[in-house]
Amino acid sequence: MAPFSLVYHDGYLTPYYTSTVECPERVKAAYAKLKDRFPVIRPEPAELEDLYRVHSRAMVERVKLEGRDTYETALLAVGGAIAASQAAIRGMPAIALLRPPGHHAGPDHYWGYCFFNNIAVAITKLMAKGSVATALVLDLDLHHGDGTENIFAGNQGVKVVNIREKKRTAYLESLEKELESSDEFDLLAISAGFDTYVRDWGGILETDDYLVMGSAIRTAALRLCEGKFFAVLEGGYYLPDLGTNVLAFCDGLAGE
Fold first, then answer.
1. 146 and 106 in contact (C-beta within 8 Å)?
2. H or E segment at 83?
3. Whether residue 1 has pLDDT greater than 80
């Protein structure tokens, strides 16, 4: 397996507005912790044909009405997920430190600070190109990835798993159970939310737990999909520790 990599673009620091908590400082904090640890891939914006595999044209037009900064940053976020997924297929697992997040964006609607479903667009592009036929999406965010579920509801090749337990031990055990019971697949995609942190909204996990989770996911990916996996940033709003938690997770994913 090639070294773990980081997908990042300064465009993710664009100060468009959706909420005071979904701010540029989120990716800035994470990037500061990771930039000297992993090689960096610079993504390009997604193309419209990529979006149209997942979202309606009417929805894309509605996102345009949110404003140029919002729309262009959202396109770049999708591009980041695509870059990470393509690196994964080449045997280089990666995390995309992007914003806006995406897992609440469905085929024809968006909410929850999300505009386009970054991870879903990346997977469907790989499927359209014949690079993968099956995928497991593991959503570790505090909030349910309803958009991702809706997008893949009729796709027999994609399984979407949301870890929903609200207690630390149960959460970790649920993740372990899902990984142990999973069938083989071509790709593992992770919606990596860090709002489960004990000082964030979820109040569930400690920093060390993210290291354990990352390591468990890496081990499962090596067994189930030849180590082809990637992650994209979703939630996580406690800025003092966000970078530390993302780094712990990535150290686990990288086998550090």
1. yes
2. helix 68-89
3. no
